[in-house]
Write the structure tokens for this entry.
Amino acid sequence: MSREFVIWTGLKFFPEASSILETAATIRVSQVGELNDWHAEASTAQVIFVRGTTFITGEVMDRIGPQLRIVARNGIGVDRVDIEAATQRGILVINTPDGPTESTAEHAIALLLNLCKKVALGDRILRSGQGFPIPGAFAPGLETAGTTLGLVGLGRIGSRVALIAKALGMRVLAYDPFITPQRAEELGVEIAPTLADLLPQAQVVSIHCPSIPSTYHIINAETLRQMPEGSYLINVSRGALIDHPALIDALRSGHLAGAGLDVFDPEPPEPDDPLFSLPNTICTPHIGSYTTAGLIRMQVMACQQVVSVLRNERPPNLVNPEAWDKRRQ
């Protein structure tokens, strides 16, 4: 394998990841970052590593140049990569769907417990100098043991959330048209045949499905009304899964007791987004998988796959398998 390959990245690699790449290519770490005009920096690269927030369109691919062979994403979502344009150009798109599972699942549970136990709200009250609130100043929290968690999606992250929630004593109900009864039984999860069957039963709903046309605004005014009054909503997947104005209305009216959000549409959200001024929300800046262990795992998985391609070996997480036979050499 020749060392003529150039790998461009907007991220600094952990030693565990860079040691894999150094045997295969020259690594060039961006000096301007992906929020600026980085295309000239990447114009000699055969491989680019990008964040999930970076748009990789056909135009971007052409600006980088005809030598570009691989777009590698440290994480799951590739909704900002034009897969069709990449396939047409023979450019391989790689992601690491197993990498962020544990950290993101833990983040969903952290938001769930934080909301239900009024942790952030209590912290805000004390920091404001109000002292201890009088009894009844706000609605009491929710004891999760014995309550029902409704999972919209039971893939890698949803399955891990289910196991943690069951350890907390929660009943777990899931809607996922692709899950098998055998898998649900392994997880100890009950399956709802439709979303409409799931929502009325769940005191907490957590979304774990991809952002595709069929899931756009899967949580909207109608589905929010199907949730019990005083229930909670968690989203660590993609912002486009929720109808933003409908969510704000449900929170303002009190129909929802709270929402914990790590993702938004658009990202980043506007500084004056109404969600930030509501007392019953917790908003984090898309950091669900942002742990040292999670970052290392994703980088290592992506690097291993890049090296396999440079050796003419098909990677296990090739998003556009149609491009393999016409890949650029």
